[in-house]
Task: structure prediction
Amino acid sequence: MELTEHVNKATALDFVTRTVSPGSIVTTDGLNVYPQLKTHGYVHDRILSGEEKAEEKLRWVHTLISNAKAFIGGTHHGLDKKHLQAYLDEFCYRFNRRVWQPQLFGRLLSACVSGPIVTYAELTL
Result:
């Protein structure tokens, strides 16, 4: 998940080229920013939300969005936009490790120890 100011063709293409291998199948909803992916080496599978197969094909997208909203609204009771990407990163970290709960604390501790130092001033500016 990545925070963006505007969802448009440029931001969609930038995100996909940085995070998805060329030749991959990219399944999206009906938003008009994605058809350009075909001309950049991706297979674009467009599914409109009203289609019968949308629930099956986009199930994990809907699950992630729903869980992220609950995480931010329930755990943090809203938050400042300044730190939203950090909260999304935390959500993804937890979600991707949800099946390894016994290892979660140790892995989190390891990530904290090996990650960059963030000062209080950086957090509050």
